[in-house]
# Entry
Amino acid sequence: MRSSISSFKQRLRLPRLFFRKPSREEQIHGGPPLEFERPIPPAQWRGIAVVVTIVVIAATAGWELHSRSLGYAPTFNDNEDLWTMARRRVQPESIVIIGDSRAWFDVDLDEFEKGLGKRPIQLAMAGSTVFPALADLTEDKNFHGTIICSFAPHLFFAPPGSPPMERAEKGIKRFHNQTPAQRVSQYLGMWLEEYVAFLKPDDLSLEGLLNQLPIPNRPGARVPPTFPPYFQTEDRERRARMWEKCAEPGSELAKRIQQIWIPLFTPPPPPSYIPPDVFMAKIKEGIQQRFADTVAAIEKIRARGGKIVFVRFPHSGGLKELEDKIMPRQQSWDPLLQMTHAPGIYYSDFPELSGFNCPEWSHLTAGDSVEFSKRLVPHLREALKM
Amino acid sequence: MLFNSLTFVVFYVVVTTLYWSFRGWELRKNLLVVASYIFYGAWNPPFAALLFSTTAMDFWLGRQIANAQNQSGKKRWLVASVCMNLSMLGFFKYGNFLLQNFQWLLTRVGIIYQPPHLDILLPVGISFYTFHSLSYTLDIYRGVLQPTRSLRDFILAVSFFPQLVAGPIVRAGDFLPQLAHPPRLKTNQFLWGLALMTLGLFEKIVLADTLLSGSADRIFGYPGPLVALDSWAGVLAFAGQIFFDFAGYSICAIGAALTLGFHLKDNFRFPYAAIGFSDFWRRWHISLSTFLRDYLYIPLGGNQVRPFRMALNLVIVMFLGGLWHGAAWTFVVWGLLHGSYLVIERVLRIFFEEKPWAGTLPVRVLAGFATYGAVCIAWVFFRASDFTIASRMLTGMFGGHPNGDAILTTRELLQIGIVTFGVIALHWSMREDSFETTVMRLPAWAITAIGSFMAFAIIFTQGTSNAFIYFQF
# Structure
């Protein structure tokens, strides 16, 4: 045994003579592969494979059961491929919803279809800025439909290179460059997501769990706040619904998410490498540029016969206070409508739209989203002259 | 198609099942050709036509080289093959880069020229399959390979899907002989191949993508100055990420090939335990370094020339090696740094190799860490998208930004530290052996436990199908 091991080791240790001059037999194509054969470590591979398979199946089943016991259930994950699937459904005269997570949670597609006569396509993306999607529809020469655009100021004005901008651009890029392999992977992934609850990359993956470790950071470290945990389900049409546990009044989950919005939407201090006044001037310049780009995009769409309406969806509690303080309506919503000459629906302007409460301050519950959509439809019809 | 995608899982299961179910060897080879082209076309179908045309041309040119009556005739056909391959690579990979540099040169002499921006899409893996194909004509010219009579076999040698897009760079001379006789399905070989694929995917999905890539991306994408700790952490994270990403792909490729009965050579041998830079290049991307050695360094005279010429040869080879990785001057600087490391090492050897203390353990360990440190410094240029970022990173690493920002979480710092320590420790513990020897020493229960852990970790991690870094080369 000893000698066979040492000869095996000897064989492996020897550097391969990759490019010695081959013998005459080796030169002839069709000869045997004399020069190289990978060694296979001697072990009971059959038995090992059986045990590994059993252990992995058992561990996966255990993890699935544990995930379900925590309240997770199978649902589609929102990613750039699912967004691309929705984007592909856009027809020249479609009604399209773009914007942030408020349009994603708060719109019920059935109610919109009933009221507007056409089923809208949900293209809003959580945590994203709307401009890339608007620009993409502008560049789509065939499109002359209707755009319902959500407005959340901290996301609407997100600068280039910021996470909300990158998130939006990722979806657009995938739509234009999706490979056949990515398309097939998306269909296969959706098939799995329909049955498996633990497929939640944000929460139940290794990275998601590592993110939740309560390890304190260095004082002064510029560390982004952790994103909220899973609190929605999503269907094939990208209709998001708040998870019931979160919708319960005063639930622990809702409270936890409320506390995440505050650091997430509080503007970070100016970076150390740019003088504060220069930084503030850049921010102001960026906002003016976003206004100008939006105006230009809307004019292009209008020139083709398209329509757009802005909607400010409900928010409440501490987040409302924060948003209203950082980006007051007079500095964001009002100039936007003024510059674009587009109609807008600010929920608090209408008593029938303003009585809704967002349990975690930013989104409506699944039930309220249906009622809110029903009440929003007449305003949309009026704004769009339908 | 990415190895770490659901599409590949289905593709691999279907292809492998059909492959071993077919009785005829010719039928099996046809299946592999079709599968390889589907694998490649799944990115961008038109580029499969480009792959085919390169292959068909080299097949024909190989025959012309072999049939040429004299050496000058052979040389003419070889030049045609080299030009065809390199011009294809040059157009797709370096077209815009060359135009930009041409514009810059003209501006220096006062000529204003605005070149058109060529909207060229880089065919995935073009650098790899060009070298696969080129090795065929080069080896026929060198007299170490006879041209194959079968175009189908040559197509398979160039496009065999496990190694097609990100290596290892498999020379036609290593692969064609394996097509002569049908391999037999050997259970142990098949299962060992699956084990290697699991290891490769673990390295890619768990270690590279989940534990390291986020930190490296944030550090190299940060627009401001960073403190030394974060700068070093970013570089160490990238050093780990690129190793696990590329070595992971290579191991997957080797494993997938093995399950189909083909033998590909190692592409990595514990490179972060290298002592010196010659040693590093014997352990890192072996298929590229041996390719450059055999087809460039040795024809230039190798080390059979005067010392100055030898140093120049090393620098030329590493300059081109850098450029092979990407059309940017940062890659060139990375290559030149490695070239100068190799030259400095040769000089140091002249003075110190014979000293009695040179081979002692502390000196070897010290030299190993110095090698790793220098390799990491070179990685800064490899990863940074421009020289501003590279210079900011290097300044940060050497304490030039004491008041810079700290942007990594404590958890990320811990992850980078643990993975870096782990990879260095493992490489040092295995540096004199092969991976197979190490596995052979392990008891069955340990192999089972490690295999189960890695397979479950892949499922548990839920990778997001990030592309392998080397796809862009």
Summary: Residues 189-472 of chain B form one domain. Chain B has 18 helices and no strands. Chain B has a mean pLDDT of 90.
